[in-house]
């Protein structure tokens, strides 16, 4: 290869091949290996979470059911199970998979990160409720325990996430679950408080959100049958099928002074009418809640509906001498008397 041009081209080609395909840190092969390793890590952690969830519900799990959850074939799930066994995270007996103490501890670390991140999304961002779980599903694999501890400290070390699920401590301790399923209520006209809403499957969770239900809400059950459960939630009648209702956990409120009166929402205030703010729904979180508080929408504040737009949304309200426009999606969260 005596031609200088050919030598230059050949040398450039060699450098390109080395840098793209062979280079230890940045080549295609290295990138592929990293992606494959990361994918395996995610599958391992998802498998551990699934095993933990099923063990908590006293449900046995097999390779077949795990393959369905992870969305992989039989050969792939067998390989993952073997890896988990070699890592001493699970045992396999009579085709049943069970967590070891090490596997349970690992699962709780992932669950801790997931629930802390959901809490962060709920309290510190404007991300919609239906998307908290999806975002946290991804983030849980990329936050280490030191970052999780810092996140927890920033939020005051919460014990429960916004769905009411207990958040494991950094030592692996899990706060006690409480309450009964909404479908297990037998006494009518008693006041209960929602303490947990199951966020999976997504289809059912979306229906619960659409009904405006949230942890902390007080309800009064007025009808229970095999076909439906009817209750009053903050002045509104709500009807759920047993399938949907089984995803809500409630506790009875035993003392009258804990029972919230059924106030109206600000959206019910007519033009020219005046009301007094008594509170903001717990369903209103994060940036939206802080924005309303910054407007002066605190208990005891007098508010007057002054002017409505052509479409009646938004409506201008007089708050402490200032005119502020609020949409119905906001006024539905504000209670008045």
Walk me through the structure.
With 337 residues, this protein is α+β, with helices and mostly antiparallel strands. Among the domains are: 28-99, Arc Repressor Mutant, subunit A, CATH 1.10.10; 180-258, Roll (SH3 type barrels); 264-336, Ferrous iron transport protein A (FeoA) (SH3 type barrels, Roll), CATH 2.30.30.90. Helix content is 41%, strand content 20%. The strands form 3 sheets. It has a 6-stranded antiparallel beta sheet with strand order 3-8-4-5-6-7. The radius of gyration is 27 Å and the shape is globular.
CATH architecture of the domain at 180-258: Roll
Give me the CATH superfamily of the domain at 180-258.
Answer: Ferrous iron transport protein A (FeoA)
Overall geometry comes to globular
What is the structural class? Answer: alpha+beta
CATH fold-level name of the domain at 180-258? SH3 type barrels
Number of helices: 11
Largest sheet, in brief, is:
6 strands, antiparallel
Low-confidence blocks of residues: 28-37
**C-alpha end-to-end distance:** 92 Å
Q: What's the CATH class label of the domain at 180-258?
A: Mainly Beta
Residue-averaged pLDDT: 82
Order of helices and strands: HHHHEEHHHEEHEEEHEEEHEEEHE
Adjacency order of strands in the biggest sheet: 3-8-4-5-6-7
The level of helicity is 40-55%
Report strand %: 15-25%
């Amino acid at each position: 290869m005596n031609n200088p041009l050919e030598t230059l081209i050949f040398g450039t080609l060699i450098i390109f091949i080395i840098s793209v395909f062979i280079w230890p840190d940045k080549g295609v092969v290295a990138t592929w290996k990293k992606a494959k390793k990361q994918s395996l890590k995610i599958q391992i952690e998802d498998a551990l979470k699934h095993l933990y969830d099923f063990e908590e519900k006293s449900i046995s799990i097999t390779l077949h059911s795990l393959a369905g959850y992870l969305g992989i074939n039989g050969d792939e799930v067998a390989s993952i199970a073997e890896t988990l066994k070699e890592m001493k995270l699970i045992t396999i007996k009579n085709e049943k998979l069970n967590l070891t103490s090490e596997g349970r501890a690992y699962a709780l670390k992932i669950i801790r990160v997931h629930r802390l991140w959901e809490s962060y999304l709920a309290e510190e961002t404007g991300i919609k409720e239906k998307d908290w779980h999806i975002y946290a599903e991804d983030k849980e694999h990329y936050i280490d325990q030191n970052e999780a501890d810092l996140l927890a400290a920033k939020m005051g070390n919460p014990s429960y996430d916004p769905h009411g699920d207990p958040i494991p401590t950094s030592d692996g301790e899990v706060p006690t679950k409480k309450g009964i399923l909404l479908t297990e209520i037998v006494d009518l006209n008693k006041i209960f408080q929602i303490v947990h809403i199951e966020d999976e499957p997504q289809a059912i969770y979306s229906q619960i959100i659409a009904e405006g239900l949230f942890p902390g809400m007080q309800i009064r059950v007025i009808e229970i049958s095999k076909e439906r459960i009817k209750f009053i939630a903050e002045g509104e009648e709500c009807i759920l099928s047993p399938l949907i209702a089984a995803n809500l956990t409630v506790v009875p409120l035993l003392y009258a002074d804990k029972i919230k009166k059924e106030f109206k929402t600000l959206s019910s205030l007519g033009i020219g009418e005046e009301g007094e703010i008594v509170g903001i729904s717990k369903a209103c979180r994060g940036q939206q809640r802080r924005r309303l508080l910054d407007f002066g929408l605190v208990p005891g504040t007098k508010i007057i509906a002054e002017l409505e737009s052509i479409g009646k949304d938004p409506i201008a309200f007089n708050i402490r001498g200032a005119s502020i426009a609020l949409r119905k999606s906001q006024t539905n969260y504000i209670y008045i008397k």
